[in-house]
Amino acid sequence: MTELLIPKPSPKQMLFLTDKHKYICFGGARGGGKSWAVRVKAVLLCLDYPGIICCIVRRTYPELRENHIRQLRAMLRCGSPDQIASYNDSEKKIRFPNGSTILFRYLETESDEARFQGTELDILFLDEATHHPEQRWDVLRACLRGVNQFPKRIYITCNPGGPGHEWVKRIFVDRRFKDTEHPEDYTFIQSLVTDN
Questions:
Q1: What tens-digit pLDDT sequence spans the chain (196 residues)?
Q2: How far apart are the two ends of the chain, measured CA to CA in Å?
Q3: Which of 4, 12, 130, 147 could bond 164 through an S-S bridge, CB–CB 3.0 to 4.6 Å?
Q4: Strand 86-88 with 53-58, pairing
C-alpha cells in the first residue's frame, strides 16, 4: 500500500487523536486545527481497524465538501494509481481496501434526522456541534451501535455560539450532567488559534 504522509499534530491535536473517552469534544477558537484532527483521526482509525464504519457529519453538504471531502480525497489520493482509498460520490463514501468506510452526512433539518434512523456506526464525528440543537445530539448518539467489538465513540468539534451552544457548554465545559449521562464518559480539549 502507498504510504500516507501526515504532518506532525500540535499538542492539542495529539490529545484529540489519542483520547479514549466515549465522547470527546475539541472546542474553542476558529483556526485551531479541529477539522484537520477529525480527518486524520477518521483515516487512522479506518486504516487500523478493518471493517469499521465512521461518519463525518456537518450541517450542510457544501460544508462537508469544502471542509472534509475535498481534503480527504487529496490526502488519500482517491482516483489516482497510488490511491490509499476510493471515493464514491453517489454514496458520499470513502472505502478502504480493508473494508472500513468513512461516510459523509449532513444534518440541517428535522427531515434530515429521519435519514439517520437505522444507521449503525462505530465512530461518529460531529463537526461544529454547536450548529445543532440538543435533540440532534440525541438522534446521533443513538446511531452508535455497530455490531462489532470496536469501542464506540463520538468526537465533536465546536466554536462558541449557535443553537447548540448551551448543551455543548453544559456537558463539556460546565460538566453539568443529566442522570443518564456519566461524567467519566466525557472530556473537553480546548482549542486555541495558537494551537494550529
A1: 567 888 899 999 999 999 999 999 999 867 768 999 999 999 999 999 999 999 999 999 999 999 999 999 999 999 999 999 999 999 999 999 999 999 999 999 888 888 888 889 999 999 999 999 999 999 999 999 877 888 999 999 999 889 999 999 999 999 999 999 999 999 999 987 666 5
A2: 29
A3: 130
A4: unpaired
| Integer Cα distance of 159 and 185 in angstroms | 21
Distance CA 170, CA 168 (A): 5
Q: Are strands 153-158 and 186-191 parallel, antiparallel or unpaired?
A: unpaired
Helix ranges, the chain (H):
11-18, 34-48, 61-64, 70-75, 110-114, 134-141, 165-168
Give the C-alpha separation, 124 to 190, whole Å. Answer: 20
**Interatomic CA distance for residues 40 and 117, integer angstroms:** 27
* Whether the Cβ atoms of residue 78 and residue 87 lie closer than 8 Å to each other: yes
Joined grid coordinates for residue 108: 440541517
Q: How far from chain centre, in Å, is Cα 176?
A: 23
Report residue 162 as a C-alpha cell: 449557535
Question: Which residues, including other chains, have CB under 8 Å from residue 146's CB and lie 6 or more apart?
Answer: 52, 53, 120, 121, 122, 152
On whether the pTM is more than 0.85, the answer is yes
